[in-house]
Amino acid sequence: MKRVFSNRHRRNWLIGTIVVLALGIFFLMPTKYYLEIPGGADRISKFVKVEGTRDNDKGSYRLMTVGVLGPASPAMLIWGQLQPFSETLTKNELMGSSTSAEYDELQNYYIKSAANSAVVAAFKAASLPVQIKYQGIYVMSIMAHSNFKGELQLGDTVTAINGRHYDEAQQYIDALKRFPAGTPVTITYTHRGKTQNSTNKLIHLPGTKRAGLGITLTDHTSVVTKPKVRINAGSIGGPSAGLMFALETYDQVSGKNLRRGRTIAGTGTIDNKGNVGVIGGIDKKVYAASKAGATIFFAPDVPATKELKREDPSYVNNYVEAQSTAKKMGSKMKIIPVHSLNEAIKYLQWH
Q1: Which residues contact 108 (CB under 8 A, 6 or more apart)?
Q2: Active-site residue among 60, 198, 240, 290?
């Protein structure tokens, strides 16, 4: 009897262990996949602060987000299939060749850049003076064979080459064109607020006939206005809040109440001239906006040109996709196509 009980006990213990391990794998073990799901519809007034002004008008502008979960467990992937407008992506589809840390840093840069452009566009639309200050070149990525790899980090800002500061990214590129690969140059850059210097040799840039630092770069600017505007979106990243940042800023600096008590949502990148550009995940943003009670949704209207189709064969006009999503939901929210901030302003003035 004692041996029978012992065998049964061991068998039950083994089964229990297997079940626990299986459940752990199912619920906790990460896969190589990520989930994109509808995110939030935050009030933008809590992110945009204009000196001497408070947004106390009724209604709200909404910043639309997409939720990213992962690496997802098998249980999470199954759960995701049950969520409306969810999408399963590989790490490469979501982040490209970037690491998670690099991806987060890029998203942080994109939303800060979107905020700056939104302020510039809003002040121009309100016929108010605005000054753009050039900081340097922002490091967006570093080639594996760059001699500056390990010193420069993604997110750093190069402010001078051989002691000279330039006023735009192209001027830095032109300055380096004069030197052949192998030439040592000294760069001055800021890393987490601290100024540093590094001297290394230029490399030959693949696919070109010139030398360079071996980084992907873009302009790093700041904006000076009166009154001062501060936009801080916290942990939210990406460039797609540009249009809505601009509308909230315009309302506050112009003193106009374009909302008139309405809940207005939308999405789209924006540049300093107020042009609105395409974004991703618009179906998820339309869903979140409708659930938040928005009655108007601004969607970028950029037709599928041959160039866009060549870059992205799966490209669909954001406005067309937004309309389709609202129809699937049975939403009464009005989907409004826009090409610029001024178009959005005029629509709200006329309607």
Answers
A1: 155, 237
A2: 240
Dist. CA 230–CA 134, nearest whole Å: 18
Residue 210 shares a structural domain with residue 287: no
Distance, CA of 214 to CA of 205 (rounded, Å): 7
The one catalytic residue among 112, 124, 284, 285: 285
6 catalytic? Reply is no
Q: Are residues 176 and 274 in the same domain?
A: no
Same domain as 262, residue 117:
yes
Indicate the pLDDT class of residue 19, thresholds 50, 70 and 90: low
At residue 9, does pLDDT exceed 80? no
- Of 13-27, 69-83, 294-308, the poorest mean pLDDT is in 13-27
Task: Tell me the pLDDT of the chain averaged across its residues.
Answer: 90
- Is 82 domain-assigned? no
Q: Look at residue 1 in the predicted model and tell me its pLDDT.
A: 44
pLDDT at 71 over 60: yes
Rounded to whole angstroms, the Cα distance separating 271 from 349 reads 22
Q: Nearest-CA neighbor of 231 among 5, 99, 50?
A: 50
User: What's the domain range around 1?
Assistant: 1-30
Dihedral sign computed on CA atoms, order 61, 285, 297, 346: positive
240 is catalytic: yes
Specify the CATH number for the domain of residue 175.
2.30.42.10
Cα separation, 256 vs 128, in Å, equals: 14
- Taking the C-alpha atoms of residue 126 and residue 122, their distance in angstroms, rounded to an integer, is 6
Q: Taking the complete model, does pTM exceed 0.90, yes or no?
A: no
Quick one: pLDDT at residue 346?
97
Q: Which amino acid is it at 47?
A: F
Cα–Cα distance, 67 to 46 (Å, whole number): 20
Q: Could you give the CA distance from residue 256 to residue 20 in angstroms, rounded to a whole number?
A: 61
Q: How remote is the C-alpha of 7 from its chain's centroid?
A: 59
Same domain membership, residue 199 and residue 262: no
Has residue 24 been placed in a domain? yes
Residue 176 shares a structural domain with residue 51: no
Residue 172 near residue 137 (C-beta atoms within 8 A): yes
